[in-house]
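Folded chain entry
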Amino acid sequence: MNAETPHSQSAFQASDVIMRVRQQAAVAQCWTTQLLLLLGVLVLGFLQAAIKDDFSIFLHDPGDAGWNAIIILISFYAVMSVLVRVYDGTWFRWLNVPLLLTTLLFPVRHQTKHIMEGQMPNQAVALEVLIVLIAILGTVLAVRWARWSPQK
């Protein structure tokens, strides 16, 4: 005799959907958090320059190509945080995994460049470390979300 009743089966399906929605929301939150941290890095840089009354640092950091990259990153983080909330296709869930992994490379590359130029890390490093940690967490969450499939 089957111990499952139609009610218990629908409750299981509902909890399965709730779990998927939570995973999806967590991945979206990682994209949003990375966006906010990147904006924090920029604001911190501008505040430090304003206090010193010296904005010359922005002539070479992030540089001409760097400013374009920052605009692209800000746009990318903003779009991804929305797309993750509105689209749930399997291929898109798996696409988030390498994309989130890629986002941890930007701050690592940026700080490596500073170290190679002999510059000491500043306060922005703390925010960039958080971007890396959120990227790692986001990747783990994205894998969990991507593996989700409806229970039969």
